[in-house]
Structure formats: structure tokens, C-alpha cells
Design goal:
Blueprint (H helix, E strand, L loop, with lengths): L17 H4 L3 H27 L7 H11 L5 E2 H8 L4 H13 L3 E6 L2 E6 L1 H24 L4 H26 L2
Helix pairs in contact: 2-3, 3-5, 4-5
Length: about 180
């Protein structure tokens, strides 16, 4: 079978929605890959945190904790939302409250702004997460023998695609 527009042979692909693949098979295939990888990543973050012995934390809680631990400096809720590309700020507010109650983060008011940072307990938990990640994930990843430059290129492409989706979301909002 041949694609009438490009005269390329049609490939049998795994797509999220066949009716959308008619518009762009490659984009639909990418979207399905992102959906599956995203679900697996979120499940991994939650299970890894459970292996650390914590109470149940969802993927956003884990991402907020790691984001606050990153670079060792305090951040505002708006900074966290921007860095994680989270539009629903109330979900980050809830995560910060939950993490505060667990003693993993603390907030301090500076002027009119609240700045959050991880506590020693939060940093220790992130280190334990990193240790479990090294044991359960990194070795398997390294066995795939994927060129690090390819991973770097893919990461950049995914960030670029997120920009396209954000732009399309703004355009769709105006319709």
C-alpha cells in the first residue's frame, strides 16, 4: 500500500488513534510513544518512591520534590510550575502542602513571596531514590547501548515538541 500524497509505502505503525494517523501517521506514532512512555515514567516514579519506604506519593509529588532538590536553592510555586510545565497551579500547591506535612519541604516567606526548599529529610529521600534508580533503571538503560548523543537529541526534540503542543493549545483556546 502506498501513501497517495507522498508516494511512500505505508508502514504498519502503532498509533494512539488511527483516525488521527490519517492526518499524520508519524505524529500519531510519536504521540502514542509519548503517552506510553509518560505512563511508564509516572508509574516508575511512584513505585521507586514506594521502594524508598515513603507514604504514597503521586508522580507530581515526586517531580516537585526532585525539582526543589535540584540545584539546592529555594523556589517559588510559580517557578516550579514553569519548570515542570504545569498549568494547574493548584495541583502544585497541593503537592507542596503534602510534602510539607511529610517534613520533606519547608516554606519561608520572603517579602510577599513564599519560597520552598527541601529539608534534610527530603534531600535524604531524593538520594535514596537516586540509589534505587541506579540499581533498578540505570544499568538496564546502559545495556541498551544507545548513543548518548542520540538521547540528547531526542530530549531536545521532545522539548521542542512540547513547545509546539503548547502553541497549538493556545491556538485551540482562541477558536
Amino acid at each position: 500500500m502506498v501513501d497517495a500524497k507522498s508516494s511512500r509505502p505505508l508502514r504498519s505503525s502503532i498509533v494512539a488513534s488511527a483516525h488521527l494517523a490519517e492526518q499524520s501517521q508519524e505524529l500519531s506514532e510519536l504521540e502514542y510513544g509519548i503517552i506510553v512512555a509518560s505512563a511508564a515514567l509516572m508509574r516508575w516514579m511512584e513505585r521507586c518512591m514506594q521502594a524508598c519506604g515513603t507514604v504514597e506519593m503521586n508522580a507530581l509529588d515526586v517531580m516537585v520534590l526532585h525539582n526543589l532538590t535540584s540545584r539546592g536553592r529555594a523556589k517559588r510555586q510559580a517557578d516550579i510550575c514553569l519548570l515542570l510545565n504545569v498549568e494547574d497551579t493548584h495541583t502544585v500547591t497541593y503537592a507542596l502542602k503534602k510534602l510539607s506535612k511529610l517534613g520533606l519541604v519547608e516554606g519561608a516567606k520572603q517579602g510577599k513571596e513564599m519560597f520552598y526548599r527541601t529539608t534534610e529529610k527530603g534531600r535524604a529521600l531524593c538520594q535514596e531514590y537516586a540509589d534505587i534508580r541506579r540499581e533498578c533503571l540505570i544499568a538496564s538503560f546502559e545495556n541498551l547501548n544507545i548513543d548518548p548523543d542520540e538521547i540528547h537529541r531526542l530530549a531536545g526534540m521532545l522539548r521542542a515538541m512540547s513547545g509546539l503542543y503548547d502553541q497549538a493549545a493556545r491556538a485551540a483556546t482562541s477558536l
